[in-house]
Q: What sequence folds into this?
């Protein structure tokens, strides 16, 4: 029993240390802070209740993100008929580092372009670029073939890149 | 346009390079090739700037204090107790129900309701397990070989059932049987391995309260362990006399197969 309790404590810690990462991903994925934390809360509740099912040799991080992805996919389906009410203000987080005017413009362009991406591309771009999952882990989390992961990554990044190029080019010209 | 004579860099390789996922030998090669491919260089720079931008936008979340509502861990204090104590506790809880309602103890009512649902799966599954695993001549009502087994039990429970494949753990489906509940029917499937150890899967589909709850484990004094969970009106329990670590493998497999069912 004591061993069991210790093992459970270790498991709890594995979950708890992922909370900031789940929050960061959720914020980038759904935009608004309160909705993002709702998603994280749902994800944690499910994870706590299913923790007994987690394989001890498994990848806790991928497991938690998988739960979150499934919950969000359900929520997105459910919200399809409700009107969107994301505003740009909601979508714009506070930048982590003090930025120059040019950087602020670029970040705001990136944030807008990210919101405009199809959800399926946004998820891949964020899991790879922000959360630094390996491609095969992303395939597991999203339950997709790796080829689909790569093509969504490519399409997503290309759209973001073109959006940034459009915004940033005049800035670069002005700097020179 | 004539064919480009330069060795190709695929889109995938360019992304892998940006993400540091390309093997070092090829990465060095691609870096060399990029020297006379300004367009690809430009794209690579673009991808890197996107990722840097994402971190600039969202890394601050990592440093925010985690809100209290995300730190609360649901209580699991009683999930490892024996069945006898849980069932005993439930009887006490049921007695309290009247008092609770009268006193307006809403939270307690909620807890009691949750526990009632757990009892509704735990108790009958445990009972059916004990009775039928001990049967030598008639452990099952309909044998696995009879193809109407799943169809028959599905129609009685009014849900589409399936029998998980446990061959990887050495267990073979023996068959199943129909069981009564207070409101309708339940099903029990039984599996056996070459040593004659038996596992039962109990399923009922008539639970009330429509909650989705904890995957829980209990073990009685004789070493019979059970994992059980509730998903809306459906309740599942996997029971066998084996160590928790072994039973969890089976429970995991059953859960995966049942949850992935359409």
A:
């Amino acid at each position: 029993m004591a061993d069991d309790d210790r093992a459970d404590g270790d498991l709890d810690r594995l979950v708890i240390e992922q909370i900031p990462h789940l929050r960061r991903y959720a914020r980038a994925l759904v935009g608004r802070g309160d909705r993002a934390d709702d998603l994280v809360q749902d994800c944690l509740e499910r994870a706590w209740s299913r923790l007994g099912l987690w394989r001890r040799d498994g990848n806790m991080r991928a497991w938690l993100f998988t739960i979150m992805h499934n919950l969000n996919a359900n929520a997105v389906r459910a919200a399809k008929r409700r009107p969107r009410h994301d505003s740009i203000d909601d979508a714009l987080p506070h930048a982590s580092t003090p930025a120059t005017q040019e950087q602020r413009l670029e970040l705001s362009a990136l944030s807008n372009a990210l919101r405009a991406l199809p959800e399926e591309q946004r998820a891949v771009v964020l899991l790879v670029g922000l959360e630094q999952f390996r491609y095969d882990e992303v395939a597991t989390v999203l339950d997709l073939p790796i080829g689909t992961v790569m093509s969504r990554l490519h399409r997503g990044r290309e759209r973001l890149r073109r959006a940034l190029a459009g915004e940033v080019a005049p800035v670069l010209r002005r700097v020179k | 346009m004539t064919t480009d004579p330069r060795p190709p860099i695929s889109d995938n390789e360019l992304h892998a390079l940006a993400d540091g996922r390309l093997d070092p030998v090829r990465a060095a090669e691609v870096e060399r090739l990029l020297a006379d491919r300004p367009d690809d260089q430009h794209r690579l720079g673009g991808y890197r700037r996107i990722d840097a931008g994402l971190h600039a936008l969202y890394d601050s979340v990592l440093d925010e204090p985690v809100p209290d509502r995300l730190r609360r861990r649901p209580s699991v204090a009683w999930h490892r107790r024996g069945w006898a104590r849980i069932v005993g506790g439930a009887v006490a809880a049921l007695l309290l129900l009247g008092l609770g309602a009268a006193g307006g103890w809403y939270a307690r009512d909620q807890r009691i309701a949750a526990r009632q649902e757990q009892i509704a799966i735990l108790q009958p599954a445990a009972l059916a397990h004990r009775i039928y695993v001990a049967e030598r001549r008639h452990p099952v009502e309909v044998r696995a070989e009879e193809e109407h087994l799943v169809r028959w039990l599905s129609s009685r429970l009014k849900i589409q059932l399936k029998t998980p494949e446990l061959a990887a753990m050495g267990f073979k489906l023996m068959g199943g049987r129909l069981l009564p509940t207070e409101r309708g029917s339940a099903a029990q499937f039984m599996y056996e391995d070459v040593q004659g150890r038996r596992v039962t899967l109990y399923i009922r589909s008539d639970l009330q309260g429509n909650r989705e709850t904890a995957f829980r484990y209990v073990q009685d004094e004789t070493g019979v362990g059970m994992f059980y969970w509730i998903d809306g009106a459906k309740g599942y329990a996997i029971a066998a006399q084996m160590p928790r670590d072994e039973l969890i493998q089976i429970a995991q497999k059953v859960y995966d197969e049942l949850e992935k069912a359409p």
